[in-house]
Structure formats: C-alpha cells, structure tokens
Amino acid sequence: MFIVLIRTIILYSLVILVMRLMGKRQIGELQPYEFVITIMISDLAALPMQDTRLPLILGIIPIITLLFIKTILTQLQLKSQLARKILEGEPVILVHKGKINMKALSKQQINLDELMEELRLAGYFDLNEIEYAILENNGQLSFLTSSSSASSSSSPSPIVKCSSNTQPTSNSASEGNGFSSDTQKHKSSCKNNKSSSSSPPRLPIIYILDGHINNNSLTSSRKNKAWIQHELDKHKAGKIEEIILAMTDTEGKFFFQRYDEYIEEDK
C-alpha cells in the first residue's frame, strides 16, 4: 500500500511538471497533436500506478519522451507555415455571406443541428444575422455578423436623448440651440421609434432542416405541410427536398436556402 502511495505522488508530480512545461492552455484550446499527447501522458501515468509489478521507470521515460516530441513539434509549427498547416490544419468557412456551406459541413462531419446549436450557444438565434461562421483549428466557432460589418462602415449619427416631454420646435430655434435640423427630426420621431421597437423579438422556428420537415415545429406553431409548400411556392423556392433550411426569423419573416445556392468563391 505504501509503494502505491509513493508511486502515485511521484507520477502525479511528474505529470503536473510536464503539463506546465507544455504551456498554459485550456482543454478547448489544444491543437489535435497536443490533445493526443495529453491523453497518452495520462494513460502512461496510470499504468504504473495500477500495476505495481511494472517498474516506475517504464512510465517516466515515455512521458518525458512525449514532452520532448511535443517541444519539437511546437518549434516546427512556430517556424514553418507548412508544418503549422499539417499539425494544426486551417480554419474552415461553414457560413459564407449568409449561405450555409454544405460541402464544408459534410467534410468536417458536422450536421445542421449541431451548427444551429452552436449559433444559439453563441447568442445568435437568427441565421440572417450571420455573415460568416468559421470553424477554427481548435474546434470552436467564430462569427461575423451582418450588423457588425455594417456598423464598421457606417458613420456615427447624432445621439439624441428621447423624452416624453419633447416639444417640436422650429428649425431656426433648434439651430440656435446648437442642434441641426436632422437632429430635430430624430427628436420628433423618438416616440414613433420607441413604440415600434417595443415589441419583443420572436423565437425563430425551423420548419425544414436538411430537406426534411420538422414536425415538432409545425405542431408548436399550428402550421401544416401545405403552409410550408405555399411559402416555398410564393418565394419560388422549389420542393421541400431541395431546401437546406427554411425558418421564420425573429421578426416572423420566412427565410430559406436551397442546396444549390452556395457557390464557393475562388481563393
């Protein structure tokens, strides 16, 4: 029993030291080759602890060897773009200009349910908000929204504080107080803007996913297959089997994408 205790302390200390030397990264940030080395180190450390008949050195030497291999691979990928591409891979565009890249999804073995789940976890319930979705090398998804790209190119507008007591004034009076006529228009329309934006957003409902009807969505929204086909016909979308995704967005507008809509641009 005492031997097992001593082995456990030694191997635990060794693994902690090796993990510190490998660098400070969370599990979700590990590259594939780093993740494999981490799993192998944990297995190698467990064997001598479970079987006291095995010499302790048979667990220590492979762990140190893996640390040496990891150090060499890290230096290679830091200095060589080719090695970095082989060891880490490249980011993959899953959504391109608002269109789902089914070829990339299939290659990465990701289905539409998983993609939509990742969108919701990131706080995006409406696919119309997404301009680009990129699968990073560590398996995480990053997003560029249409609102962020639009805000970067738009000029700032005057900030107007809305008040329920705001009284319309003439242009001359407003200019005399340092406000432009455009600002005054903003002030007079505050009430209308506030009332129009007060309605809460709707939860997007997916009716067609990967060419199949979502019956649960039909039941919850009290719709039927005829309604879906009517919407597709109205937008000249084609048959249900030809649709990747059909849904209503946060404003209740019908949105769809066909399988043949995505065209990969030349790089």
From TrEMBL:
Domain YetF C-terminal: 79-247
Family: Belongs to the UPF0702 family.
Membrane topology type: Multi-pass membrane protein
Descriptive protein name: DUF421 domain-containing protein
Alphabetical list of InterPro entries matching this protein: DUF421, UPF0702_alpha/beta_dom_sf
Predominant location category: membrane
Sequence ranges of Polar residues compositional bias: 165-182
CC annotations in GO: plasma membrane
Localization annotation: Cell membrane
Keywords: Cell membrane, Membrane, Transmembrane, Transmembrane helix
Membrane-spanning ranges: 6-23, 54-73
Disordered: annotated segments: 146-199
UniProt-listed Pfam families: DUF421
PANTHER family registered for this protein in UniProt: UPF0702 TRANSMEMBRANE PROTEIN YCAP (PTHR34582)
